[in-house]
Design brief:
With 180 residues, this protein is of the alpha+beta class. It is built from 3 helices and 6 strands; from the N terminus they run H-H-E-E-H-E-E-E-E. It has a domain at 51-172: Nuclear Transport Factor 2, Chain: A (Roll), CATH 3.10.450.50. The chain has helices spanning 2-60, 64-68, 88-101; strands at 71-78, 85-86, 111-122, 125-137, 144-159, 162-172. The relative contact order is 0.13.
Amino acid sequence: MEMQTRRLAVVAWLAAGAAVLAVPYLARAGSGDAESARLRRLEDRQAIEELFTAYGATLDRRDFTAFGQLFAQDAVYVSGPGGPTRGRAAIQSLLEKTLTSNPAHLPEPAFHLFFNPSVEVDGDRATAHSKGAYLIPDLKNGGARIIFFVSYDDAFIREDGRWVFARREIHSGMPSGGQR
């Protein structure tokens, strides 16, 4: 009987020790999923912010083919008077015509700037609000000047592992005090 009691005590002691040693491992295993999800959200935000930069950079260097690839096949682009432009090819064509015709006769080179992004990621979809400005050379004083100030409301979708615009809505002018 005494031998059986000792065996049970040893087994109980070993089980308790194993449980104590397993707690940190199990805690890390659970937090790994949370850390992985957090890392994924941060990487997604970064990729979307890089999409903002690519938007301006492709337009600034007049690479309209690359510009078109920033949009989903069925994307919607809303800017200025008239209705929305629908579809990647139509959006690409609209911006190519507008920038190459230079209807405002702005001096070149001109540059897009983006700032103050607020990005919300939800799985393979995301939304964002950001600001933008369009700079042109200041021929009179040297340097540059802001010619347009806009705000953007965007929706994104992950397609084939990369983020693209599903909808881009542009609002011209200075935002009111209540806007983000």
